[in-house]
UniProtKB/TrEMBL annotation:
Recorded superkingdom: Bacteria
UniProt organism field: Eggerthella lenta
Keyword Lyase part of the UniProt annotation: no
MF terms (GO), sorted A to Z: DNA binding
Entry-linked InterPro entries: Cro/C1-type_HTH (IPR001387), Lambda_DNA-bd_dom_sf (IPR010982), LexA-like (IPR039418), LexA/Signal_pep-like_sf (IPR036286), Peptidase_S24_S26A/B/C (IPR015927)
Keyword entries, A-Z: DNA-binding, Transcription, Transcription regulation
The name this protein goes by in its record: HTH cro/C1-type domain-containing protein
Any Pfam family matching the protein: HTH_3
Every HTH cro/C1-type domain range: 15-69
Amino acid sequence: MLTEHEIQSVLIANLNALMRKEGVSQSEIARRASIEKQTVSSWMRGVSFPSAKNIQSIVDAFGITTDDLLSLENGLASKERFASSEIMKPSYSYHVVPMLGNVAAGEWREVYEQHGEEVTIPDEFAESHPRAFGVKPAGSSMDLVFRDDEIAICDPDMEVRDGSVALVGVNGDEATIKRVFFAGNTIVLHAESTMADEYPDIAINTKDPASPPVHLIGEIFWKTLPAKPIKF
């Protein structure tokens, strides 16, 4: 049975999947479901949990099921991960981007370019994300978003938005992948893990001289699987 923290993380992951699926923001979810924006924001930050009435309001507003929001196995986030792993039709229309070293999903770890290593993404991203690169999440603090074998694609030219998944540099060359929230001068790095108790939010006050320097490297806009050699 999931703990309260794990249930909260599942809800957050499913709500984020809903936003990606529908192309909407937290504010739009609140508007369509007739819920206060601050209420939805508090769910996403793990401060509170929606009532049964509010869950039903979102279900009705978007034509989804309760499981889509609350289930780990059958929720929208799980369906999204399953869809990304389905076998795609062969295509020669792709774009090659460089790979950087492993990025900690549970700890902060140095990120460095893996010379000679590359990953392919859909050709449609070549023009809109010309400086994109791949990074390999490590650890389990983002395992509700990335499977062990998935590669995150980051665009350093994209502004990191509130509630987005991003590559964040901390203490110079160290970096981590987390969902990012902004609260005044504070940047909150939020994990989305099946082991939520092990990964509390990391709050960094950008105005506090004692806080580690933070650099929002770029937003994660895509994920893919590594290419596998074909044997004949």
